[in-house]
Amino acid sequence: MTQTPRYTPLVQSLPATVPFVGPETAERASGHPFTARLGANESAFGPSPRAITAMAAAAREVWMYGDPENHDLRVALAAHHGVTPDHIVVGEGIDGLLGYLVRLVVEPGDAVVTSGGAYPTFNFHVAGYGGVLHKVPYTGNHEDPEALLARASEVQPKLLYIANPDNPMGSHHPGAVIADMVTRLPEGVLMVLDEAYIDLAPPGTEAQIDADDPRVIRFRTFSKGYGMAGLRVGYAIAAPGLISAFNKVRNHFGMGRIAQAGALAALADQDWLAHVRTEVSAARARLADIARANGLTSLPSATNFLTIDCGANGDFARAVVRELAARGVFIRMPFVAPHDRCIRVSCGPATMLETFAAALPEALAAARG
Amino acid sequence: MTQTPRYTPLVQSLPATVPFVGPETAERASGHPFTARLGANESAFGPSPRAITAMAAAAREVWMYGDPENHDLRVALAAHHGVTPDHIVVGEGIDGLLGYLVRLVVEPGDAVVTSGGAYPTFNFHVAGYGGVLHKVPYTGNHEDPEALLARASEVQPKLLYIANPDNPMGSHHPGAVIADMVTRLPEGVLMVLDEAYIDLAPPGTEAQIDADDPRVIRFRTFSKGYGMAGLRVGYAIAAPGLISAFNKVRNHFGMGRIAQAGALAALADQDWLAHVRTEVSAARARLADIARANGLTSLPSATNFLTIDCGANGDFARAVVRELAARGVFIRMPFVAPHDRCIRVSCGPATMLETFAAALPEALAAARG
């Protein structure tokens, strides 16, 4: 008897994975909400008050579909970046846009290059379209441009992924290093430049790349610096030919009315973003102090999180994460060795950081057994 | 020289279509906003006031990602429908969920059956994954269950699409007719039952189908009766095996915080839905009066729109749509003959309907002239 539905062979081969388990899942299991939500690199400093007002106003108008062209937001983003609206596509977070991009170029068996331990949701999409992932190791705590380029020369991938700044290590390359990589890409390779954390990075991290260069697509988001992870608005900047190809596959009405209004207002409030940058900087310093006070070293961060080396192996760091969770503190950690010696703590307001500071010594002691 | 990026052959063959052009595009072109927005079957009666309050409150918490399991909303929907949360997947509107479903089952060359003139966004997804659409004609103003089943027997499709009630004709079949279709599906065929308009349909339209039946997936939305098209929340009810397959491909964090909160509050306010049903019923009657006063006949409607036969061919109806737009009234019309003799006018508050009533005689005269 034929099974119904008849899934594609590719789908049959896929696991029903979830790249990240949400903190709500743990909260439901324990029956206790986290008191410090510092695991998803959300911005507990919140969104711009002007964005909150815009979203609340848009809630009354939510009976209308959002503009499927995302016109006003694209015009504003274009002005912000000094490009044209034809260089910009808006979508359901970077996650959603990465899915569309992979669909546009990856067929079963196609090679894709990334770093072992880099963003798993990108890998989820590549696997989901049957692509073959080739992973190169980090050099220390940095993604390795030379190793990525060398592997690209070997396997001629359709996509080469790099995040700058990096997640989960918080490291970064100067923009000039990234721009140099572009000039050295093997023919036919598209660089996927994930700049989710660029708003929190030091000056000079943003690569100078011609928006008409067909070899690069860069991704930005309102989830991190702008503090609107739960709104689901990301965008990509690329040459108009590639941008228009998204129209072949995207969910045209996927960006809702509140999402577009909120992002537009947030973009207009650059003062708030500057305020968040100041808060993030202070929070990074405080987190580094907390690490030091517990005999741990932290890594330099160009992001809104701090990666802390727990000085032992992955089992130990996983125990620390677990013990912190038991004490109401939600954090995450890198997935692969040797990075999984570390924990990753998001920046947040002082009250959350002090909850972490109070829980960490106990969690370390419990993890040490 | 290799072109970058290297699109898949399937993507290269796809047009950069937009299934529907938004009214904002026309407004930008004309420089005048529509005074009566009656084209997208949105609910200008608005969402539940309780949902508006919930969305405004959630806007302050939008720095947090939404729960990737959509747990609370799925639990509430399960209770509402008398199924379990494992029977429900929530996603970025029915459009987004249809895309995931097609991806799960359709490979290039796979057959899919639908009706000529039925929902074009479903066709967009099928074409987007290389499926081959087999279209049967409506019988009069109804999708034709017998013809759909007969074609399914011939081509053994992976999917058979039917909407009940139907868009764009507004017709419906009794639920028993749909339930009977399920029992007669050829082996291996999954019925895609689009019930976007079911909240506005007469009693008995909802088919009694066991949620564990692997032959059917039914789609519902908060865009129509609940008045939240711009929030982008749809859901599907199906057997747990199929529901869990969505986890292989979906954008896990695609449902934002405001979207989940708004849908949850809207679902809890069934009184508002009952109020909208009353308003829709009155608006349908008023629209039918307006049609009659202009010498036109309207079709029976089980939806939140009225389909009006303009009594001539598609060119004439297209001219009526154009002339109404020039007078500030946004409506749409069926795409294919012979349905394109009609226009399709959404229900709305009295002020919008009276704007339509005032513009229609002039538009008809201009179209005739």
Automatic annotation (TrEMBL), chains A, B:
InterPro entries: Aminotrans_II_pyridoxalP_BS, Aminotransferase_I/II_large, HistidinolP_aminotransfase, PyrdxlP-dep_Trfase, PyrdxlP-dep_Trfase_major, PyrdxlP-dep_Trfase_small. One of its GO terms (molecular function) is histidinol-phosphate transaminase activity. The keyword Transferase applies. One of its GO terms (biological process) is L-histidine biosynthetic process. Its cofactor is pyridoxal 5'-phosphate. Pfam families: Aminotran_1_2. Keywords: Amino-acid biosynthesis, Aminotransferase, Histidine biosynthesis, Pyridoxal phosphate, Transferase. Residues 37-360 form the Aminotransferase class I/classII large domain. It is an enzyme of class 2 (transferase). Pathway: Amino-acid biosynthesis; L-histidine biosynthesis; L-histidine from 5-phospho-alpha-D-ribose 1-diphosphate: step 7/9. Its EC number is 2.6.1.9. It catalyses: L-histidinol phosphate + 2-oxoglutarate = 3-(imidazol-4-yl)-2-oxopropyl phosphate + L-glutamate. SUPFAM superfamilies: PLP-dependent transferases. Belongs to the class-II pyridoxal-phosphate-dependent aminotransferase family. Histidinol-phosphate aminotransferase subfamily. This is histidinol-phosphate transaminase. The lineage of its organism: Bacteria, Pseudomonadati, Pseudomonadota, Alphaproteobacteria, Rhodobacterales.
